[in-house]
């Protein structure tokens, strides 16, 4: 299947989409079965005649608005979140423009349906409820066939963004084997919904390296490899082959690592982040959003980042990712790495991490270890006692231990901190460390609270959801548009600063610490611009090596507002574009499905 933008003079390097007509060589049932080009009842009479659709559609021509209203009404025939998720998935594989229009128009209501928490239930039931495949399946049993498996998705300039997972650490529900492809599809969809990438230019891929989930292996309907998860050298060699194949076939694509396991996430990121433009959302995205909320909260309460004491409860991939982002942000604002580490304290299942715990702690955890000699006589497994000694400015939960921030713990923090910053980030909702209502009540409504799942306002206090979708789409969009060689810590720090600047709480402390989802287009565009501005400073922008329409080199605007306008002009929006019937064409942009 191919299509070509009719504005041939505009190079791929400088725009993701165009607003003009699209040349299309499909017709009849083929066209109706193409999720990218299907308009359903919105095909004009002229298009129906040109594409042999007249007898395949009822006579009335609907607008996209009318279709979206009908779809929204149909959605509410379903009573459970999972049934609504199924409806949205069905729409996505039938008509992508309509799907994104529907979700964008009702983003606050539908994001929990098409992403967390409902997506977790859909992933658990992936094999038993399988209908139509989405994404690319890369099998460790077929390492020499990786490029063959990627070939259906196009050639070198057809893909801008790749979301990939080994499915070991899915959404707080752990190892989900081949079903993890759905989290990749969901995150790729968020790149379109929130980041404005063309839905035909994103790729979702799962690494099927086996599973340690006994229920899946024993499930006769399970669709993945039925052997224990492969580790060590064989795993590393397979990932190397995958990354090499991805880069060779799609050299301009940004690679987004998603929900890798605790033991693989950080090594994989560190191994490839200097070689390719890649990004781990669980480590860097989660850290960026938490850091932005923290920066906003410090601004609201007139405190300095350099004075903050931070307690991280749960030192897995997410907790360490947040710790690293706080460290990187402190360093980018003048602190030494050693100073930053001294202000961050991490707790895992063995208690506060101390420098005599090498036998039970990873190297990444040990970099945040407190001195054991400073904690003599203190029960470091008791959160209240740890809080009493540290007197944290900020307490962040990434433990998936529901209720871990007890009344005693929160009140102890409040004794030493008149405006405590409390972020229970574990999701889904049932796993959060403290309910926002309790955190506020126990601090006389003086706490600044952000969560990892959506919660309603509490007595006029908006509870911001620290959802990664307010950060990673903008970071990814900026890296894609600039054709970045790599994504540096300072580029992410620039995104954090821009996100914090947009905090509504700076104007009114009762408002959320993060921008409202209703303004996600503006949020992502501004973050992307900040990323591009920093990338230009660091000399990692490749797009300026490509030809512009005038025959010279592409020039990215150096002024923030002009660059912001340029970024917005690149963002795909869910709108129907006119189709022009052609015979088979040699396309500038080729999409094969």
UniProtKB/TrEMBL annotation:
Note accompanying the cofactor annotation: Divalent metal cations. Prefers magnesium or manganese.
Keywords per UniProt: Metal-binding, NAD
Active site: 115, 187
The Malic enzyme NAD-binding domain, residue ranges: 283-536
A GO biological process held by the record: malate metabolic process
Annotated Malic enzyme N-terminal domain residues: 92-273
SMART domains xrefs: malic, Malic_M
Gene Ontology cellular-component annotations: cytosol; mitochondrion
SUPFAM superfamilies: Aminoacid dehydrogenase-like, N-terminal domain (SSF53223), NAD(P)-binding Rossmann-fold domains (SSF51735)
Listed cofactors: Mn(2+); Mg(2+)
InterPro entries: Aminoacid_DH-like_N_sf, Malic_N_dom, Malic_N_dom_sf, Malic_NAD-bd, Malic_OxRdtase, NAD(P)-bd_dom_sf
Domain of life, per lineage: Eukaryota
Entry's Gene Ontology molecular function annotations: malate dehydrogenase (decarboxylating) (NAD+) activity; metal ion binding; NAD binding
Binding site for (S)-malate: 427, 467
Residues that bind a divalent metal cation: 258-259, 282
PANTHER family: MALIC ENZYME-RELATED, NAD-DEPENDENT MALIC ENZYME, MITOCHONDRIAL
NCBIfam families in alphabetical order: PRK13529.1
Family per similarity comment: Belongs to the malic enzymes family.
Name the record gives this protein: NAD-dependent malic enzyme, mitochondrial
